[in-house]
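Please, why this fold?
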Amino acid sequence: MTTVGVVSPGFMGAGLGWALIEGGARVVATVEGRSARTRRLAEQAGLELLPGLAEVVAAADIVLSVTPPDQALAAAREIATVAWERGVSPLVVDLNAVAPTTMASIAEALGGLDVVDGSISGPPPTAQPGANVYFSGPRAAEVAGLPWAGKVKPIVLGPEVGSASALKMCTASVYKGTTALITQALRTAGAHGVLDQVLADLQQGGVQDPAGVATAATKAHRFVGEMREIALTQSEAGLTPALFEAFAEVYAQIATTALADGDPESARRLTPAEIVGQLAQGPGE
């Protein structure tokens, strides 16, 4: 039986772990130093919880790194250090939303451990099965062949580390950029007293339900780094980074609101007026 380690078991990490458990894999993780919500998600997913990162890396044949973008490089260094200390060589799959050049730095930081570049497009399978999970690198097919139980759709892009990250930067620029635009529109509409009319017009035009704005707000602190990684990726393609540097500022501001203090599960139940109201308040107001 393949043992997969998840670093770390938040909303997405726990969801991926659950899918692999459904397929018959052993999945281990640690919630050392993490929040009560992370522990709850990991336990609900059925992950086997170990005392710390060292035990997870030592036990795993494959390690999935699922962290906020600005923590991805540090996570790679920690995994490499533990692997060297324990004398183990797990395959590391970096599933973080980072630029291809950041992915190259992550591969270097892993200090000779084999790495697969990965990216996720869609919600965790515990919320809605069917997300596309892209893999690239010499051992990508090995990871795609894990027992995902039909809960995600694994797609191999090819042998180049960086391809999966590049794809993520492109798709996330559309999905999260659009959400940021809608969020700004609704906040402005609320300030000018035309929220209901703006919502009606946007819905007539097929724009997404504002529930997406609410759930994105609860993850805004993670999206700041992701927007900067997109800006870097676009700059490396010869394009201006200004657009997504601005979106990073938008999400940084959203992260300071009352809505950002919630969790995705509760945010989905808010009305549009409640969403806009909480976006206008600071934490605890």
